[in-house]
């Protein structure tokens, strides 16, 4: 068998149904599907049973251990030459597996990954979050299918690896967050061939509201420091940008507030009738860069999504992503690098217990 598709699941039966339905439409049919229920209180076995005659599907239910260990559980039972790791909240287009086969036939790879897109059925918030996570103006375009600021590290929402390499490297670590980057780092350190397959993209729902999105990216910022403590060489300049952005936003807001203070203290007009230029200049310096960046995001997203509403939501999504990641990064840097504490994560109850 060529492919084994491994999907860890935690309380997402409806999303599993959508994913399995999309897999029934693949033009490439030499694959099996392994659904690993990670101690869910709302299991998806009945959903999997619906596809017993349509797919070569295997359902497993185990105690909760997190996504990485659930993927390892599935990998131990897989028989395909390549293991394809998907999140339960993705939907694959009809040519997904065919695109992977085409890439592998053209040039072999030990590991690979693809980008993600927003489906037309996604909510405006989901489309805005998807834009933020794939835009050149937030991530450098790396996660949007273009290699820009750093080498491509496969992510667990859409990742493939030869089964022999997976076993050789021991699969995913016990990290709850950043475990896919940890695995990708070990893939590169082992000297394996790792490539981006731009045509092997998926529809990825990601988080459904900004509160959940903040928690996700905050943990991603923490994970980056946890990874740095394990692999100091893995921290690149690009990983510092959200932290720099966060500090920059705070500094600009303080400048703006200072400008308002001048206007309030001295009045909008000074005695001779001239404008209080000091306060106005400080307000402009504080707001102009933020407004310019927001305008760029809004225009770009509006054009790409054909919706001003999504464009405006994308501004919020971009600031949530960069500042959430930046705050998590700074928190972890202080606790781990300054205070010397051990590995940690936040909002654990919102992700796999």
Automatic annotation (TrEMBL):
Coiled coil: none annotated. The keyword Transmembrane applies. The chain crosses the membrane at residues 237-263, 275-298, 310-334. Pfam families: Glycos_transf_2 (PF00535). Residues 4-169 form the Glycosyltransferase 2-like domain. GO terms for molecular function: transferase activity. Keywords: Membrane, Transferase, Transmembrane, Transmembrane helix. This is Glycosyl transferase.
